[in-house]
Every structure is written in structure tokens, then in C-alpha cells.
Predict the structure.
Amino acid sequence: MNKILMYGLVLSSVLLSGCKSLEGATAAIKNLAGNNLYEGLEGKYIDHRNLNEFKTREDNYTGTGAVLSYSGTEVSLEEVRKNSIVHAPEITAYLQRIVDNLVMQWPGTPVKVSVQVINSFSFAPSVDSFGMINVPISMLANVESEDEIATLLSHELSHLLLRHHERAQAFKEQKENVDTLTNAVVAANIAKDTKIVRSGSRVSLDYQPSKHGQKNITKAAVYSYMINSLSNNVWNTAWGRHQEDEADILGMDLAVSLGYSARASRDTLERLEDFQGKQESLLSSFWNEKSEALKTAWNDMDVKALSTQLDDTMKRGIYVGIDAIGEYFTRSHMSPLDRDKNLRNYARQEHKQSSKKRVNKKVWASFVNRPENKKVLDGYRYAYQVNQLVSEGELEQANRVAKDMLNLDIRNQPGIREVMYNLRQSQGKGSIAEKNLELIDGWEYASSELYGKVIAAKMQGEKYASAIDYIELAEKNLKNKELFIIEKATAYYQIDKPEKGLQAFNECLGYSAKKKICQSFLNKLES
Amino acid sequence: MNKYFLFLAITFASLCEAENSLKILSYQTDPMPVLDKNAKFIKNVAVAELPAPEVAVTFFDEENELVKVVDKDGTEFWFDSFDLELNKGKVVALPCVKLASNAANNATQAGTLGYGKSCNKG
């Protein structure tokens, strides 16, 4: 009965809230549609009186320098980064310089904004609510000019300047649907393998890690890597039509005022159109593979034998995830080519000279082909290839490509070693897989998913003190204490620090996604 | 007989090539600015007087982003591609992995399985 209660609480807290969020997201999409911004627009949008309210502000975003998220504020679960950061100082500084110059073109209060490169093969960048612009490494491999880069960054900056995040809560909730399934399986695993132990008046938790569903959890992790590689743009930039139009137009005004060509927007939107065509079919197939793996892992845990209702709930959660991807692509999301058409008309009208100026390809080509920068692009391209080959079961070929990857001196970056971990796990070499995690240099760049892997490995290996070290590292670097709180509490009990375990369970009550399961643990411990 | 099949093969290949060639799908302004091959403005021409889309592009100057078409009278027109809707545009290359056995690992390959229209840069 205890196990059924725990499973039920895990699912209700993690999955069912996601289902309701999906309904809310659809309504919010309609509300954000707005009127056609281009109709009757005269003059440059940056000078339009509608923007006056945004030009004077005094809030957490205003000022210059680094973004707020790295100044002490906790990042919510849905905004915790899913992609590893790429450590590329020269490229990052180059991008930051462009953004800083764009901010100076804004005739209002400046905003704090930073740029980082992430391990993603989506095409366009995205901006989070803290002012961090995430630039996928794939974008840098595909653009042909600094004009394109400035156009893309300027668009994201405009979302910040126009405070679009304040109206985007529904889209963050939708993102939770895709991510919660893996969390549900991991949390259920822990709950399943944990027993309450009483010795006199002393109550403790005894965690005996099993390997239930491990093979399929590994398989799901491989597909998660692919999904995260391609979907950052999908989930963080699900803006309404009106917001996209605003960011397009203001973005163009800012970039052109810096001397960039207005023609670059055509190039970027054509690429975005091409990418989205590829992305949809890839994401759907990866998600299907991942959900099959998770379903199998769930079956391995033999939940159905305990409760058919729980089993049905899990399956419904999987289909919600699949539907969420389908819904994203079929809802009223403006076609990049329609945006391009509108923007080119606007450019001809308001930026006539700039629309005749060709983009400068030489400067960017020279920069990106410097050895220091080229190795970064090559290395992460290899990483994507290795993971793709692993997902197809081509382990020998994956190994060959991995050798090229490991020859580069970026070999110990988190995004690179994560792929080696996936490869070795798929080869059934668990201890070598774990060694790859220990070789990581720069855990401050690791994704939440990678932290999840190392923490799960330590918990499975009964190395609880080490698990706690990594959990605390994750809390510090991801700015989130909720993600691994159940693992933290459980681990403290295993190293005979029940007071810290209890403290963690009590802290957990402050987090909506996990408080029910933590309350259940507390009830058992205190009864 | 061999010459006959060769003729058919060449014709078929040419038709396929024409099918895949660059075309103007629409003019984005009316009138359209007509240029010379150096992108210098010549005059504005009403769309009704231009070759009706879809129009095959006879030459694409990629560096200057100019396209040339020829109407049925043999008159050449140069346009800025920014003023046109074309059937092909910029693409995104994803790292392809289902490579031919003798291809280098860092190759990108057009039309590779499962990646949509093309894996190659446009």
C-alpha cells in the first residue's frame, strides 16, 4: 500500500499538473494573437509612440552588466537549462560585443543582457526571462555573415525590451510536459527502492537501488539528448504572432541602426523555415523513441501489477507529450516565410538604403575559421553525430567518430563527455561511462540532464556522499534547489545524517511539483 | 537503339534538371525595379509587363544576389532577389550520419535519410 501511495503521489504531482497546463497554453496562444502589426504602420517602429511605455523602466532587468539570474535569484524548474553551455570564450565575447552595441541603439533605459553558446542543433537563438540569450552552436555553423547574427540577436533582445516574457507564462508551462516524464520515472524509481526502517524510536529511510528499467532509461536518455539538441528553440520561443512581429520589426530597426544589412532577415527566416521543416519530423520520431523506452522502463518496474490506474496515467502522460509536440507545429504559429514577406516590405519602406546593402560574408568567415573557433564547431558536430549513431545502434561507427572528437582539446567539456557517457552506457560499460563524467572539466557548464545522470550513477553505486556533492554543485550552478531534492534527502539518510534528510524533505514542501511526495515521506517518518 | 535510349535519358535528365532549377514564384513589389547586371537601377516596370511566374531563372549571380530571366521575346531582365519570391532559399545543414562508406566523417550530404529536403548548405 505504501508503494502504491508513493507512486500515486509521484504521478499526480508531476504529470497531471502538466495536462492542465496544456489546456491553459492553448487559450493563452489565442489571447496573444493580437492584430496584424504591419497594417497601417507608418514610420520606424522604434520611434512609435506604442513603445514609449517600454523605454522608461525601473525593474530587475534595467542597467548594464551581467544578467540577474547569476546574481542570486533561484531559477524555476521550467527554466533550468536543458542544454550544456559551450565553453568558447572568443566566440562568446564576439557575440556579447554585438549585443552590447545593439543595446546602445535602444533609445530608452538599457537592459542587462548576456549571451552564451549552448550545445544545441536548433537554428535560432532564444532568450530567457532573466536576460540570457542562448545561441545554439548550430546557428554559428549555418549563418554566413555577422549581419545574420546581429539580426537574430537583435530579435531576441527585442523580446526583452518589449517585456514579452511577462505575457509568456503559458508557454513555460507547456514546456513542462515534455520534461516531466523522465523526472516521473526517476522519482518513481527512487520511491520504489526506498523503505521506511524503524529501530526503536529511530525512523530512517533505507534506499536499495535496483537496476529496474536501467537499459531503457539509458535509451530514453540518448533520445533526450537528441530532443534537447533540437528543441530549445521550440519550447523557449513559442511566442504569439504579435510578439514575433514586434520583435522582427524592432530587431530590424536596431540592427540597421548599427549598420547591418536589412537583407539579413531574409536569410535567417529562410533558414528558420528550412530548419523547422526538418525539426518537426525529427522531434516527433525522437519523442516516439523516447516514450517507447520510458514505457518499457515503466513496465520493468511492474507498476501495472500494483495499479492499472497508475499505468493508465503514465501512458496518458506519454501521449500528452507527443500531442504537445504535434500541437506546437499545427497551432497558429506564423510561418517564417510570411514573416519574411512582411519584413521585406517594411525594409523597402523604412530601410531602403539598407535593403540594397549586401551582407558582409568575409568578416564572419574569417572569424569562424580561426583554429580556436573551428575546433569548437567541429567538436560539437562530432558530438551530435556520435549521439545520433548511438540512437541508431551503430555503436562501432559511433566509436570511430568519437575518436576524432576526443582528439580535440575541448574533449572534457560537459557536452562532449555526456555523449561519451551515453555511448559507453549503450555498450554496457557502466563503470567506464561513469569515468567519463569524472573527466568533466567545467561542471558550471553542465545541463540539468547531465547532472541527473551523474547523480543517478552515484546513487545507484551507493556513493551517497559523492551524490550529495554533485547535488550541491547542481544547486549552485543551475540556481535551483528543487530538481534533485528527493535524491538529496534520500542520500542524507544513507550517510546517517537524518536531520539533514528531514530538513531537505521539509524544504521540498515549498516546491509545488514535489511537495506531495515529500509530504508522504514526512508522514511516514513522523508516524 | 542505343542512341535512342541515350536521347531519352538526356531528355529525361534535362526535364528533371529544369524541375529542380531556380524559379521566380512571385514579384514582391509592383512596379518592379529592373536593374542591369551590375545592380544599377534602370527603370521601374509594371508586373503585368514582366514574364508571368513561375519564371525560370537563367542566371543567378549569388555574390550580388541578382537573378536574370528572359521573356519570350528574348528580352533580359535583371532583378534584385530581395524583391522576389524564389522557389529555393537558404537552408540549414544538420550533421548527417548515414554517410556513404567512403565519405569522410565531417561530410554533409544532400538528401540524406530522415533529414527532410536536404542535409546540404544551400
In short: Chain B has two domains: 2-86, 90-122. Residues 13-19, 97-122 of chain B have pLDDT under 50 and may be disordered. The interface with chain A takes residues 28-29, 39, 64-65, 80, 82-83, 85, 89-95, 97, 105-106, 114-117, 121-122 of chain B (CB under 8 Å).
